[in-house]
Amino acid sequence: MGHTAHASEAVAPWQMLADTLLQREALICRLGEGVPPHDFAGLYVASEDLDRVLRTLPGLDGPDRSAVRGVRDHLEPGLAAAREMFAASLDGAGKDASTGGDPFTMLVRRSRLTLSQAELLAVVCAVDLSPARMKLVCYIQDDVHLPRLTLSTVTRMFGSAHAAAHGSRLLTAALVAVGTEGPWATRMLAPADRVLWALTGDDTPDPGLPPGTRRTEGTAPGTAVPELLLVSGTDTASRLRAVTEHRSGQGLLTSAVPGGAAAWEALVREATIGELAVVLELTGPPDRETCDRIDRADHLTWVLGSGAELPLEVLPRRAFTELTVGPAAADAADWAAAFGTGPEAGIRLTRDQLGLVAAAAGGQVAGLSAGIRRLAGGHLDRLAVRVSPQRDWDDLVLPADQTRGLREIVTRHQRRSLVYQQWGFSPLPSAGVVALFSGPSGTGKTLAAEIIAGELQLDLYKVSLSSVVSKYIGETEKNLERIFGAAAAGDLVLFFDEADALFGKRSEVSDSHDRYANIQVAYLLQRLESYDGIVVLATNLQRNIDDAFLRRVSVGVEFEAPDECGRRRIWQRAFPAPAPVSELDLDFLARQFRVTGGIIRNAALGAAFRAARDSGTITMEHVVLALHREFQKIGRLCTEAEFGPYMDLLDTEQD
User: Fold this and answer.
1) Within 10 Å of residue 564's Cβ, how many Cβ atoms?
2) Cα atoms in the Cβ-side hemisphere of radius 13 Å centred on 564
3) Residue of 225, 371, 407, 456 with fewest CB within 10 Å of its CB?
4) What are the residue boundaries of the AAA+ ATPase domain, all occurrences included (predicted)?
5) Nearest-angstrom CA–CA distance, 382 and 322
6) Sign of the dihedral defined by the CA atoms of residues 35, 36, 42, 48, in that order
């Protein structure tokens, strides 16, 4: 029997071993037992087949063992030499991992196979790579339907089938699969396609990997001892960086938890072949199957990545190393890799967010602002209303003290890097700014939030309570987590109107509803303390806000109904310059009607539409009638003391 490779071709030690073992078994079948396969081997049982089987049963004469022994003795020196060469090749690959080496020997080292397991893998792979060897196997097994080694043949060749047993590394590393159909003895062993690709120099990823699996090449071979690593932190990219640093530059295979046996096997196999650490990104505690898979594939380094620390009772039953990654903004190196430039002033992104924005912007700085807005908008637009700031400080009529409070919010956001990073002040509990706007409706709270966002060139998101608060337990917290998570870059302003509905005082627990409401408040406080952006809480009644939130407030601004001077300024600004305004008695309007800025603006707009209907200019009559409508909306009586000479006009109003 000649080797399957041409004489001019170099034959790897593992192929030499496989050929030698197969030749031995073929010669034993041909010479030792003296019964070569017939023309229709495996298709029927002939009389000579039956005789040969009967001779193997206990108590009968049995085959001519002397002939078999002679064949074995004759081939033993060649087989011993092949095995010695094979073992030497494996030992050489393990001494210096940096030199690479034969793909087979590197695979054995990475899989941490025993010598017997490596021998079996060599034969199984060699057979699949050569039709000539498959014919040899059919000859050995006397069946054209069995072109791969069966468990029975493996037992005969290696003395036992333990190398292919259920707990064998060949199976736990998903390098070899054992057929599941037919009797145990005739079940064939097949190498995974990905293993054969690797042996022939093809590094195409396994097609069975879970969707979204990402491979990160390492900067150094993974020579460290395998371990279980727990990494917690809200930023995925920062967690991966921590893993890479801890594992001395080892490559990573990052995936969600696989959804089935085939996906699990592909993940383990790919990590084994590439000598990669497997990073499982968890959305909750790992289930029992995940723990069992990790325990069985203990030749790999496993990393469980999560947003928070995992409970001890859900972890695999083995020692672990734990890393905690704090909230970290992308640094200069991250920005350089993403955009080829340094960090943009005033923009704070996590590594995760920077990666998403860079992809959306195509790595172009010109698309940075749009990418940041898109980053938040995709999550927030379902739960909040986006307000693009249009108005500025001239549109806001407030006393000087309140205006200074609003400008302080802007300063705190603009100068936080100077104070917290360069000057060393501790940003406790976070570098975020929480502002409380309290006062009656219509006094300018929403307008003030819009002006602050415009001054900082940020978008304003007005949180809709109807889309956030849910009667179902836990749903409110989930909605709020989506809001704060999307806004975590700090490049927008979150505005909670009627904030006392969410941030109200905690009550004495008298039933499950009270307990759940208190849990919501506690969660909100915790999330607010970890948020680095700007949050504006607006309420009509400050005394309804829980004291814990008040202690977290950075700047509080009390909005009051404007005085006569303020009302006149608001009336004056309520009519744009192009509007066709007739002689309006602004002094009368400011003096007689003690209303808020919101009512004034609504009345001015109502008067404009009345004038447009009449195709004329905006007159005092239009304004007075529009005020009358506003009073009706809020249930306020119209008195002669306020309307004075225009009182009769209300009685004669025409539709």
Assistant:
1) 13
2) 6
3) 225
4) 431-563
5) 37
6) negative
**Average pLDDT, stretch 590-617?**
91
- Local confidence band at 197 (pLDDT 50, 70, 90 cut-offs): very high
Q: Which residue has the higher pLDDT, 47 or 199?
A: 199
The pLDDT value recorded for residue 638 is 87
Tokens 């109807």 label which residue? Answer: 466
The burial of 113, by beta-carbon neighbours within 10 Å (0-12 exposed, 13-18 middle, 19 or more buried), is given as: buried
Show the tokens assigned to 640.
């002669």
Cα R_g (the chain), whole angstroms: 39
Give yes or no for a contact between 493 and 460, defined as CB atoms under 8 angstroms apart. Answer: yes
Domains and CATH numbers, the chain: 13-199 (no CATH), 214-324 (3.40.50), 332-367 (no CATH), 385-558 (3.40.50.300), 564-651 (1.10.8.60)
Bridge partners for 216 per DSSP: 252
Range scoring the smallest mean pLDDT among 131-140, 259-268, 478-487: 478-487
Per-residue pLDDT at 199 exceeds 90: yes
Residues 577-593 have a mean pLDDT of 91
Compute φ and ψ for 324, nearest 5 degrees: -115, 125
Please give the C-alpha separations between residue 652 and each of 4, 291, 636, 648, in angstroms, as whole numbers: 110, 81, 19, 7
Quote the tokens at residue 451: 């002006």
Q: Are strands 433-438 and 214-216 parallel, antiparallel or unpaired?
A: unpaired
Could you give the count of Cα atoms lying within 13 Å of 235 in the half-sphere of its Cβ? Answer: 20
Give the residue carrying structure tokens 């089938």: 161
Going by C-alpha positions, the residue among 133, 16, 22 that lies closest to residue 85 is: 16
**86 and 122 in contact (C-beta within 8 Å)?**
yes
Q: DSSP string of 347-399? A: ---BHHHHHHHHHHHTT-GGGHHHHHHHHHHHHHTTTEEEE-----GGG----
Rounded Cα distance between 602 and 627, Å, is 8
Per-residue pLDDT, 255: 95
Q: What is the rounded average pLDDT of the residues 138-155?
A: 87
**Residue (of 51, 177, 52, 68) closest to 121 by Cα position:** 177
Contacts of 271 (CB under 8 A, 6+ apart): 253, 277, 278, 300
Instruction: Output the six-digit token pair for 78.
Output: 């060649």
Structure tokens belonging to residue 490: 């700090």
Closest CA to 349 of 535, 481, 488: 488
- The C-alpha angle with vertex 264 and arms to 285 and 214, in degrees rounded to 5, equals 85
Distance separating the N- and C-terminal Cα atoms of the chain = 109
Per-residue pLDDT at 20 exceeds 60: yes
Q: Which of 102-106, 121-125, 541-545, 599-603 is least confident?
A: 541-545
Lowest mean pLDDT among 19-23, 342-346, 599-603: 342-346
| DSSP character string of 405-442 | HHHHHHHHHHTHIIIIIIS----SS-S-EEEEEESSTT
Give me the helix-helix angle, 332-339 and 351-361, nearest 10°.
20
> What does the alpha-carbon distance between residue 119 and residue 125 come to, in Å, rounded to a whole number?
10
Burial (CB count within 10 angstroms: exposed 0-12, middle 13-18, buried 19+), residue 124: buried
Helix, strand and coil in the chain, % to nearest 5: 50, 10, 35
| Sole residue written with tokens 């940096």 | 98
